[in-house]
């Protein structure tokens, strides 16, 4: 069967129908890729260097011949792998620019009866799209509050109520503090984070507000795109208030079950800011299992940091909401009522 070249506009519907193969090298794939794709390299990392060097020094003809020399002996292995993984014989393929590597893979697969759809412009076209999307103008509502006010849980409840949300910490695999990586999957690269971020934004309606949690520019080792971060700073912010005991209880619920040695390492990462005495006290409390003690110790630092971050937001755009001792459903109702003050489009679905 012959392949079919598809544009990025067509790609979105094809992507939902067929599995995707990324024909680039394993290193390129690890750096970033289209989410959901499988990596089956035509040239591995070392072979790609050889072919690329030859292309620069002697031109495309010799580089192409060398590429076939390197990958040719593996053709049967590639075919067996693809046939085993995708017996339906319908596939979408791409490489860096939609060039030689995806063409070779497409040719191979059509030889054994595959229906192949090759992305015109390759990953570069997709990456340009995702890069631009996370830097567009968005209508944001920022959910703020000190550590332990349950912002992530409220975001999830907002989504259940039909609101648009982007869980930045969920996308980043990090909860945004020294303790934020504990129990999380490894963080993606900055480029892959933007791809995942763009996938989430693509599902939103641009003319409606999107709720995001208040974040600093960095989430773990990842950095938010400057334009999006500045839009967060300029957006209305709902500052959630909870009692200190409620906050301690919530943090203990999430972190008391985690390994003590990892909690101690997180405290040690903050030693310069906490000071020697508070660091020692926190570590001792972790060892003794006195979670309320070490958490209240940490909150002294994190509360100061939150106040500092709060001052960066646009003046006059912060709404404080006292949600002390209030159940989640009532909290959501209050958040949506506050949203009405700003956008006038809240409908109480329970009435």
Biggest sheet strand line-up: 1-5-4-2-3
Radius of gyration, whole Å? 25 Å
CATH architecture of the largest domain: 3-Layer(aba) Sandwich
Question: Helix amount, in percent?
Answer: 40-55%
Shape: elongated
Assigned CATH class of the largest domain: Alpha Beta
What structural class do you assign from the helix and strand content?
Answer: alpha/beta
The biggest beta sheet is recorded as: 5 strands, parallel
Terminal Cα separation, in Å? 57 Å
Reading the helices and strands in chain order gives: EHEHEHHHEHEHEHEHHEEEHEHHHHHEH
What is the domain total for the residues?
Answer: 2
Estimate the mean pLDDT confidence. 94
Contiguous low-pLDDT stretches (5 residues minimum) are: 345-351
How many helices does DSSP assign?
A: 17
User: In what range is the share of β-strand residues?
Assistant: 5-15%
Secondary structure: elements and pairs:
Elements: E1 4-6, H1 8-17, E2 20-22, H2 26-31, E3 38-39, H3 45-58, H4 60-71, H5 75-85, E4 90-94, H6 100-111, E5 115-119, H7 122-133, E6 140-145, H8 151-160, E7 164-166, H9 168-172, H10 190-202, E8 210-213, E9 218-219, E10 222-223, H11 226-234, E11 237-241, H12 244-255, H13 260-269, H14 271-274, H15 276-288, H16 291-310, E12 318-322, H17 328-343
Parallel strand pairs: 1-5, 2-3, 2-4, 4-5, 6-8, 6-11, 7-8, 11-12
Antiparallel strand pairs: 9-10
Helix pairs in contact: 3-4, 7-10, 12-16, 13-15, 15-16
